[in-house]
Design brief:
The complex is a heterodimer.
Chain A (H helix, E strand, L loop, with lengths): L3 E4 L2 E4 L5 E7 L5 E7 L6 E8 L2 E4 L6 E3 L9 E3 L8 E8 L8 E2 L3 E5 L1
Parallel strand pairs in A: 2-11
Antiparallel strand pairs in A: 1-3, 3-8, 4-5, 4-9, 5-6, 7-8, 9-10, 9-11
Chain B lengths: L2 E4 L4 E4 L4 E8 L5 E7 L6 E7 L4 E4 L2 E6 L4 E6 L8 E8 L6 E3 L3 E6 L1
Parallel strand pairs in B: 2-11
Antiparallel strand pairs in B: 1-3, 3-8, 4-5, 4-9, 6-7, 7-8, 9-10, 9-11
Classes of the chains: A mainly beta, B mainly beta.
Chain lengths: ~110, ~110
């Protein structure tokens, strides 16, 4: 079945540690996105990529990094520079840029310990 | 700055009644408006899209209205069921079609 796979579902990060969240899609979508969701807030855009080897910062990119070496994959690294990383992270993709439906993965919970 | 407001208080209704959720926005002129459903600990799932030149869109028990003058969308679920209990997110997409802005969502509880 086509879809977006995020892993791991739950991840714990120690202070000063970088962690990477995986996102893979087999929908043949060009655009991919990373959102962060905090309780009582809307989804906030971290990074997005419209084509392979290209990505742009979203509204809250500080402390995060991404890569887009393959069309199917868009991993997100939460660096030690992100001071408040505990959140629910959602990867998403879209076939075309204009107006189309965004498809989401099941999300990854990141907790700082 | 662009802002989307959805009722932060949970909506509690009785099974069989119509649930109405509100999405208001400011400082934005969306070309499209979408509604998503999100269950706890899961990713949002697309429900409906309505364009700026459309007043109303229906899909089975769902109905969405879009008033660009009032800058408001209403989302209705008729004959509601306990399985409809979830958080519903409103999303706006600009004319360029790329950037999508999400509201915080409204939690709906349908009691049997």
């Amino acid at each position: 079945d086509g879809g977006i796979t995020q892993s791991p579902k739950y991840l714990f990060r120690k202070e000063g540690q970088n962690v990477t969240l995986s996102c893979e899609q087999n929908l043949n979508h060009d655009a991919m996105y990373w959102y962060r969701q905090d309780p009582g807030q809307g989804l906030r855009l971290i990074y997005y990529s419209q084509i392979v080897n290209d990505f742009q910062k979203g509204d809250i990119a500080e402390g995060y990094s991404v890569s887009r070496e393959k069309k199917e994959s868009f991993p997100l690294t939460v660096t030690s520079a992100q001071k408040n990383p505990t959140a629910f992270y959602l990867c998403a993709s879209r076939k075309e840029v204009t107006g189309n439906t965004i498809y989401f993965g099941e999300g990854s919970w990141l907790t700082v310990v | 700055s662009q802002k989307i407001e959805q009722n932060s208080e949970a909506l509690n209704i009785q099974e069989g009644k119509t649930a109405t959720l509100t999405c208001n926005y400011t400082n934005y002129s969306p070309a499209y408006l979408q509604w998503y459903r999100q269950d706890p600990g899961r990713g949002p799932v697309f429900l409906l899209l309505i364009r700026e030149n459309e007043k109303e869109k229906r899909k089975e028990r769902l109905k969405v209205t879009f008033d660009t003058t009032l800058k408001q969308s209403l989302f209705h679920i008729t004959a509601s069921q306990p399985a409809d209990s979830a958080t519903y997110l409103c999303a706006l997409i600009g004319a360029g079609g790329f950037k999508t802005i999400f509201g915080a969502g409204t939690r709906l509880f349908v009691k049997a």
